[in-house]
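Quick note —
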Amino acid sequence: MKDILRLAIFLTTTLFCFNLNAQRNDERQLYNYGFENWVNEGTKDVEPAHWHSFMSASGSFNSLMSQQIEPSSAKRPGSKGNRSACIFSKKKVGIVANGNMTTGRINAGSMSPDGDNNYNYTQRNSDYCTPLTVIPDSLTVWVAFRAEASDSYASVMAAVHGDVDLKQLSSGGYDPSDKVCATAKREYARTCASGSSLVWKRLSIPFTAGSHSNPRYILATFSTNKTPGGGDKGDEVFVDDAYLVYNPELSLDYLAQTEFILPQDGSSLNIDIPFNLTGSMSVYNLNKEDNKVIAQLSDAYGSFSNPVELGRITTNESGIIQAKIPSYIETGDGYRIRVVSTNYPMTSEDNGTDIYIKSNTSVDAYFATNIEIYPNPANDYLKINSNNVIREINIFSIDGRLIYYDNVSQNETTIDLTTFKKGTYIVRMILDEEVVVRKIVVK
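Predicted structure written out below.
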């Protein structure tokens, strides 16, 4: 029976470690950043998976430590998860013991809150370390700080460091300091008073560069008070969705083709537009819609003051937009293409080379003396006269949306513009054998 029990424990531990290592493969993000997964639930040793508290502390006074962390059903606004982590302070022999949660390990080596032997540290080659091989731009997290005193301040600290068991000292410094690549720190006031409803706040804390240039780990810590032994018994910090953010970059990739001829049937022309996108776009703990990358076409002179949308894709990564050049685009040899993003608004450089678009309205010059469009600019109406029968009229907004459609089948027509907004529009007229395009302005 004992052998079966040992085997069950071994398999459970092995599976847990396998899952944990699988979660670490990226080495760009905190593990269990939503605090959904917990170990040892139902016991005094409960902790968030890969985050640690006093219950797993080392040091000569570790046996005196008590539970000061627990899972909570409270969650930040807009969360897709079900839990957060709650750390809380206690009072022992007249001294306030701050709640403490870290990706490393707590060392309880002194009875004095600010004693030199009290520190958090990375313990390499164990569960008490979080590999990180890229320096983030910021640490973002949702917190709710419920405290007795209105002047209480909780704290969050993080250090990206090299291949060393780095210590975060009670004084706020690090040892050895020359192995620190970057640090992030924020002290924040209570968000709600003790006994009141939780008020959540999202923190965005930038990393400041250190002296070391070879990142290997991150040591992050949340505490119920910025001062060791500070605050009051029962102060609580709720932590949810601690997420590392990398500033994104967007660029247009190489366009192999720079000369296009629109189809004779008046349909749009398909074009693939590749782009490069890196960094954090749809940030997990920021309540935004998924990011979109949009391809835009300039006017025939390279200006993007009123760009035409060619296509869009919902993505957080590099890819290809399967776009279309609209049939109403006029002939020109100075067009440019660029891409823009929505969640983290960015605009790429354009493709850097003039694009030639030849429209099948090349006979447009012939019809210039035979088709009248007036008045232009227009107010309430637009008149169109032609010496040939106009079969169909389409009016597009400058960004490519179809605003108006009519099967005319006559030589002249009047279009009501009272519902049109002020701006520039493209009028496409389909005749028996030709397509004629004109630009109008509605005042």
